[in-house]
Amino acid sequence: MAKKPKKQQQSGGTPATVALTAAGTAFTVHSYDHDPASASSYGEEAAEALGVSPDRVFKTLVADVDGTLTVAVVPVAGSLDLKALASTVGGKRAAMADPAAAERTTGYVRGGISPLGQRKRLRTVVDASAQSHETICVSAGRRGLEVELSPMDLASLTGAVFAVIGRG
C-alpha cells in the first residue's frame, strides 16, 4: 500500500531547494516515504506516492557524452534515447555514466540526483515533452523528496535546452 504523501510549501534544505530559494523561483516541495523494497523505479515510486501522472514526473539521468558528463531530464514513464542526447549536445556517442562518477560530480546519491544545485554544473537537456506541462516534478536532491516547478524555470536555472530525448 502506498504511503500518504506529505506536502510542504517550504524548502527541504537540499542544495536544490536552497538554489531555488536563492533564485526566488516559485516551487513546491513534495515528500513521501521512500520504500527501499519498492519494485518500481525511484521516479515511478514518486509518481505513485504523490498521485501525479508519470508524464509530469521527470527523472534525472547522468550520461557520458564523448567523455563529458551530461544531465538528461526525461519522463519517468519512458526512457532516455542516448543517440538523441548525444546529437543534441553535438556529440557522437553517449552511454550512461558510471554511478560513482555521477554521484561524485553532482553531490547527490543515485535515486536522488537533482538537476538543480549540483556540486558541478553540467550540461543539461530536458525532454521537450516537459514544455506541454504547466509544472513538472524533479528530484529535490534526495530519495523521497520531489520539487514541483515550471519547466521554463528549470531550464533557466540549469542552463538547459529542450529537445526530444525521451522514448516511450
Order of strands, widest sheet: 6-3-4-7-10
Helix content: 10-25%
What percent strand? 25-35%
Number of strands: 11
How many helices?
A: 5
N/C terminus separation:
27 Å
Rounded mean pLDDT is: 88
Largest sheet: 5 strands, mixed
Following the backbone from N to C, one meets helices and strands in this order, namely EHEHEEEHEHEEEHEE
Shape: globular
The whole-angstrom Rg is 15 Å
- Which structural class do the helices and strands define? alpha+beta
Describe the model.
This protein is an alpha+beta fold. Helix content is about 25%, strand content about 30%. The chain has a five-stranded mixed beta sheet with strand order 6-3-4-7-10. Strands 1-2-9-8 form a four-stranded antiparallel beta sheet, sandwiched between helices. A two-stranded antiparallel sheet has the order 5-11. It is globular. The two termini are about 25 Å apart.
Task: Please render the helix and strand layout as text.
Layout: E1 6-8, H1 15-23, E2 28-31, H2 42-50, E3 58-65, E4 68-75, E5 79-80, H3 82-88, E6 94-96, H4 99-106, E7 123-127, E8 136-142, E9 145-149, H5 151-158, E10 161-163, E11 166-167
Parallel strand pairs: 4-7, 7-10
Antiparallel strand pairs: 1-2, 2-9, 3-4, 3-6, 5-11, 8-9
